[in-house]
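Continuing the batch. This is chain 6 of the set; chains 1 through 5 are on the previous pages. Same settings as before, nothing changed between runs. Recording input and output for traceability.
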Amino acid sequence: MSESVDPGLRVGTHGAATDSDCRDWGCDRQMVRSFRQQWPFPQTLTIAAVQEARILRDLLFQKSSQAIADVHSPEWQEVVDATVLLAGVIGGLGGANCRTVAAHAVHNGLTHLPAAHGILHGEKVAYGILVQLRLEEVCQKSQLAETARQQLLQFYRDIGLPKSLADLGLNTMTLAELRQVAEITCQPQSDIHRLPFTVNPDQLMAAMVSTEATRESTASEPQSAPEVTKAQA
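Output for chain 6:
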């Protein structure tokens, strides 16, 4: 596109201006926000992103174990390509609603704990995905979310991803620390509020300590957070 074009006319698909447009043309972020408000993100692209995410999920389920076992294998190359390239496509198509939500919000809350500073970003987000699914079970009584969480738990066992706070090395976290993380995660500007239902700190705490709940135990969903340790709150 010619550089003579008015920056105010340079917008993304269906009129959705992007942050890169803002950087490229020097227009201010308020202009970008006004474009986004005037032209909401197309629902069609969100649906397309979800379908692409299912393809990525299935590929990871099928090939991750073999890829980890042999980093010189074609499976390794496929998994790396899919994780980097296809995940980028999903984020581009789906926008912010398909990028962060509760999983990254939980990651962001955990980063405020000194004990979590040595934990890899991906490990915290992997745990955060389980928390998000658990929230859907607790808050929406979603059987689909419960099935997806059980499927992920098995996958995590197979490839060594953390399934709980204990797996993250946070088994000595106090109730006060858990509440601190939950309150930070539930701040008004948090991406957790992109979920299609309201989440409060107590619900989040309950989900964070029950990511490995079995199918039998989900019959009585926790409505408030149990103790993590006997340390004083």
